[in-house]
# Entry
Amino acid sequence: MGSVKKCIFVTGGVVSSLGKGIAAASLGCLLESRGLRVTLQKFDPYLNIDPGTMSPFQHGEVFVTDDGAETDLDLGHYERFTHARLTQANNVTSGRIYERILAKERRGDYLGKTVQVIPHVTNEIKASVRKIATNDVDVIIAEIGGTVGDIESLPFLEAIRQMRHELGRNNCVFVHVTLVPWIAAAGELKTKPTQHSVKELRAIGIQPDILLCRTETDLSRELREKIALFCDVDKDAVIAARDVDSVYRVPIHLAQQGVDDIVLRHFDMSDLPKRELSGWEDMLDRMRHPVDEVTIGIIGKYVDYEDSYKSLKEALLHAGLAHQLRVQLRWVEAEGITQETAHHQLSDLDGILVPGGFGIRGIDGMLEAIRYAREQEVPYFGICLGMQTMVIEYGRNVCGLESAHSTEFDPGTPVRLFFKLRELKGIEDLGGNMRLGSWPCKLEPDSLAAKAYGSPQIHERHRHRYEFNRDYEEVLTSHGMRVTGETPDAMYVEICELPGHPWYLGCQFHPEFKSKPLESHPLFSSFVGAAFRHHGTRVRNEQVREAEQFLRVRVS
Ligand code: GLN
# Structure
């Protein structure tokens, strides 16, 4: 632990879902472009110890860090927008804070004192910020979840108020993300919600330095002046955070209004080099001018809740950028797919992907989609559950292991192709009982994976409870499947492939967590490349079919 040098605290007002996470990540991106080293932190005011036990359909994706923390999806944005290396310490919930305090209380660490929100909870929050202040970090950007006015975020706001006092005004910047709604009946943008939200913050003792005003349109000079006057912020620090077509455009949008300059002015660091965002601009340019497109079908359950597959969506988008392609995502509800409907539902896809998941719902439909991809030679990418179902489909339909299953879905199956991880035996709690985080994986030479990565050993992040049963490896491989990735101790199978198929790979890990807009993940790039080749074949075949039909009509 070093000492905190500079801190930016990001709060939100008026309503939730204003994109505080993207705002914090974009600030990180801009400060890195000025040569600063940043890290980001998310405080979540709920009482769960971590989001690992929360439904992704309520809370969005559970993001996993290298050290195996199950975190809020905002950490995914932070990693995609910056070079920060995030760990368990970068996502702290109220539950975690209380867990620590109560453990100390039971140990007698408080020496008989009354344990209270102030100072004990606030001290623990401040200690969490200090914990990530390592020597290689210049600026900490900490986002406070929830909305100003929530009862449960009060201790966090009090803690950051104290930190401003302790660190000094020129080491601490408060950014408040707020809403300036368009009221159609009046035909006007309204500043009152922002005024109220700032009033609420000031009542707690926090005077914001920068207001990021989420609007549908631009903010006029008059409106900026009005907000500045009522909220007591500099005029140039009232920023219009307009809706944009891609989250990756937000840093550029903020840069155009000089947000980084304003932050650096507060920090007395105005002499830093000019921002360097050319890589970022090139990426946006490729996004704006795709040369073609591919359609990838994602076969999952509850696919309406796209936030639950956030990193996956982003990774596919990044892979498209690497090829200058627009990747259209088609969410297909697994439950509706049968052998009879598969062709109708899937024949216009260029690639099929089964993502991670838990529970039996939709498994049969996934197996049918995988069979379709295998038989019709459509590129297939299976991630975690998608790898397990890929192996089960192969076991059943190619190797004759008709009752093959995972014990997750059929505990009594006689053919246990996947069973509970050996290292988890005897652990019955729901929280933190998975194989989590980054593990090394050795790749087979000449495999699809080795070619994609261009390296014999990789590290990828995991989040699963069931493992491939190596007792069935021989029967699977003798029928053509290949195990191309395993842990260096040969304990766990990590990757399976089907040689001879245009692109057919399943991995037990989650590569999507490591993909970035400027560094697309090798497996995703390779998959999207194959999908584009399939797209070409598909389009040509369609043209041939049409021509044949045309000729048939003419001849008859
Ligand atoms: N449910 C499977 C397991 O626990 C797959 C998990 C996942 O896809 N993340 O092993």
Observations:
- The longest helix spans residues 522-555.
- The pocket of glutamine is lined by residues 356-358, 384-385, 408, 463-466 (CB under 6 Å).
